[in-house]
Amino acid sequence: MTFLHGIAASNGIAIAKAYRLVEPDLSFEKKTIEEPTTEVERFRKALMQSNTELEGIRDRAKVDLGADKAAIFEAHLLVLNDPELTGPIEDKIKSENVNAEAALKETADMFVLMFEQMDNEYMRERAADIRDVTKRVLSHLLDVEIVNPSMIAEEVIIVAEDLTPSDTAGLNRQFVKGFTTNIGGRTSHSAIMARSLEIPAVVGTKTATEEIHNGDLVIVDGLKGEVHINPTPELVEQYRKISKEFEAQKAEWAKLVNEKTVSADGHHVELAANIGTPNDLKGVIANGGEAVGLYRTEFLYMGREQLPTEEEQFEAYKAVLEGMEGKPVVVRTLDIGGDKELPYLELPKEMNPFLGFRAIRLCLEEQGIFRTQLRALLRASIYGNLKIMFPMIATLDEFRDAKAILEEEKQKLLSEGQKVADKIELGIMVEIPSTAILADQFAKEVDFFSIGTNDLIQYTMAADRMNQRVSYLYQPYSPSILRLVKMVIDAAHAEGKWAGMCGEMAGDEIAIPVLLGLGLDEFSMSATSILKARSLIRKLNKADMEKLTQKVLNMQTTSQVIEAVKNATN
Ligand code: PEP
Ligand code: MG
């Protein structure tokens, strides 16, 4: 039995066989061959095997993920069966007497290069399809398995170096019981996705992929951040009990689903949910969310081959607004960059992606992308209570520029005869220290703030949120962070505006009492944290939390704050 320690990223216990998601080794040597005809046959066999495999994946994807996700595999099938690609490969085998692997790779690389250099965006995207298909055919030639999580058909725990947000979004909840990764932190987006999918997860174990083999029995303890490999039957039994207790606790919280979030002394706060797709709404409603406090729209742009159209976006935003039946929905405009990539945008690699060309910086530059999103949002605004916020605002000029573009699009729509809601609140994420420090000035111009502590903490502490070696610096209760949060809330209130928080800190048991004391108006978190937070807030006295807050703001260290909160709330 082996034990790994990591970061508890998503609550719950999962016990199942390991399924390793690792990059296959597709290396080979270029060889001269004697029998080109046999080699061509070998190549054709690999093509056929790839074809059968792709058809299976496409059919499964259609059922499990919908026709738009399945379209990716349809495109792969087209490439695979294109004589313009396969013909030159066969010719090369015959004319140069080289093995199929080398003929395939060299020909495909040439096409990839050619497509990548084309002006037409659609053609450039075909380069990615050719790369994927080449990988698949190579894997059959070399007899190496390439794993595809959407093909999983038994209960498993995924073991990976890292999972991208789109890998996570594609996981089939029916079979994927949990996951564990070598890298990542509590606020990496794969962890955030795991919470909204309610998949127990432990990230940042450093060595999961080295220690765990396919088929090993694994326990993922997402409550404590532990992973047990090939546990004893006694330990499995113990964990089954813990899992039952956790489920019983959840059933207790579930009784609060239709209750208001009111402190013991009668102060109401709003408990909202963070969502990534319209599908997450079910969880928001099941967990008694009073609003959507953060709709991370970038997930609409991921796991696909090109930008979503205005119409696709309009449908998604409308679905969320209608689904919330008039309750507030705060939609954040595109926040791409950092750990969220869009391969089809082909942005150059950066030394420091979290400090780079991302979010509003990209939108103000690539205005076509931004304007399409704003138009879709404005058109959807008549279907509910829409509020729009801009991510990663560092200066007032950025906010003013973004607001002016929004206003221009609104006027254009109105002149086209389209309907737009009269009043749409416009806010910003406060996730950059400069903005928190200047919050009093921002508060004069914005309608609300939403504090994004995942980034605010990484930027204040200068500690990459993806790097588990510096994860000890993710310190939401540090007096430094608490003071910044206070500045933002006070600045909003001084101008009669509201302040919310949509970073993971908003759902944190130790932070909640302090945030209540600081006067935070809206707490937005993973839907699965809402009922637990409601149960906690209903037991707290706001007046007492204000006194506690006064004390902790003047403390020196995080551990002092934790102790003070525990003493005040037990
Ligand atoms: C944040 O930074 O706190 C936030 C909510 O945004 P994201 O996690 O998507 O960067
Ligand atoms: Mg952020």
Helix tally equals: 22
The domain count comes to 3
Largest sheet features: 8 strands, mixed
- C-alpha end-to-end distance: 37 Å
Q: Return the CATH class of the largest domain.
A: Alpha Beta
The percentage of residues in β strands lies in 5-15%
Name of the CATH homologous superfamily of the largest domain: Phosphoenolpyruvate-binding domains
Task: Please give the radius of gyration in angstroms.
Answer: 26 Å
Class based on secondary structure composition and strand pairing: alpha/beta
Main β-sheet, spatial strand arrangement: 1-8-7-3-4-5-6-2
Per DSSP E runs of 2 or more residues, the count of β-strands stands at 16
- Mean pLDDT across all amino acids: 92
Q: Low-confidence parts, pLDDT < 50 over ≥5 residues? A: none
Assign a percent range to the helix content: 40-55%
**Could you say which small molecules are bound to this protein?**
phosphoenolpyruvate, magnesium ion
- At CATH level 3, the topology of the largest domain is TIM Barrel
Tell me the CATH architecture of the largest domain.
Alpha-Beta Barrel
Approximate shape: globular
